[in-house]
Amino acid sequence: MKNRLPVESFTFPIEKIKAGYYSDAYFLRTAEILNGDNHHPRVLMQIFTREHVVVCGTDEVIALIKTCAHNPENITIHALHDGDEVEPWETLMTIEGDLADFAHLETIYLGILARQSRIATNVRNVVKAANGKPVLFFPARYDIYHTQESDGYAAKIGGIKGFSTDANALPSNGKGLGTIPHALIAAYNGNTVAATEAFDKYVDSKIARIALVDFDNDCVNTSLTVARKLGHKLQGVRLDTSGSMVDKSLLDQMGMFNPTGVCKELVCNVRKALDAEGFDYVKIIVSGGFDAKRIAAFEAAGVPVDTYAVGSSFFDGNINFTADIVMVDGKPCAKAGRRYLPNERLELVK
């Protein structure tokens, strides 16, 4: 049996949630009507999605119900585990109890499942596409910072081990990774070698020396210049050429491929140049607009990438979940087109 995260792992604004601050208004009115009419049937709420997804957020939803429902001791939950894959319409969780006790939570628990499952699904697709090569989770700048810890947890469930912020890395008991941004190179007057040497001088030696080499839009020559200067201390170079730019090394090759951004031809040029001067130990990290489809194409073409750093595409898509009452007082009762879909994979939450 898989373990679940303990309820104590999560912190909620309990009073605001119980007061309905984050809830769609009609759920609050539902509870108001049921309580006012003293009408308390025992319902079975069934949750599903219409897509094939990696489920994530179930443990947080369980903690939400146990912490923020009214009379949670009277609510029975059956659920899959974070990381389980589900088919369209497959039931991933049921909540059974007095609807007035948990109606105010529907907006919140569907939102938790939607965000975390979207990230976990995108991450797993990218990790599969990368064929065992390391993938770095670098999307923190594309959304508000409040979500970083839960996003990092979803990425962990999806299969990633490297993160850009300490908050993203917290669920994995790690620390944020990353070396040189364009800003540091600019601060050294655009001198990539000077910035890399400063990094090497002042940053803990346990941190990998990885040079960012596209500042001058000349990845081949910049990579070689840094490698000659740092020698075996240089562990890798990162290519991050803008999708609206063509690297200088490609100007004589243009005509039969799309030369913009970090294309496969650019990676091959850098690899060939490094190897020719004996820098075959220097790894190549690529970033800038990578997603599962683009990574799969690189892998199919045998592009010599060692690590993929992926950002905004982890937030792509619109995975969402639906909750329906399908049983009332033990008898079938659902809107047209819906019915109780029992799932033997669900486990009773204790």
Would you give an account of this structure?
- It contains twelve helices and 14 strands.
- It has 350 residues and is α/β, with parallel strands linked by helices.
- The strands form three sheets. A six-stranded antiparallel beta sheet has the order 13-12-1-5-3-14. It has a six-stranded parallel beta sheet with strand order 7-6-11-10-9-8. Strands 2-4 form a two-stranded antiparallel ribbon.
- Helix 9 runs parallel beside helix 10 and helix 10 (219-230) runs parallel beside helix 11.
- The longest helix has 24 residues, at 106-129.
| Rg over alpha carbons | 25 Å
Largest sheet: 6 strands, antiparallel
Mean pLDDT: 97
Assembly classification: single chain
Instruction: Identify the strand order in the major beta sheet.
Output: 13-12-1-5-3-14
Low-confidence spans: pLDDT under 50, at least 5 residues? none
Span between termini:
13 Å
Structural class: alpha/beta
| Helix residue percentage | 25-40%
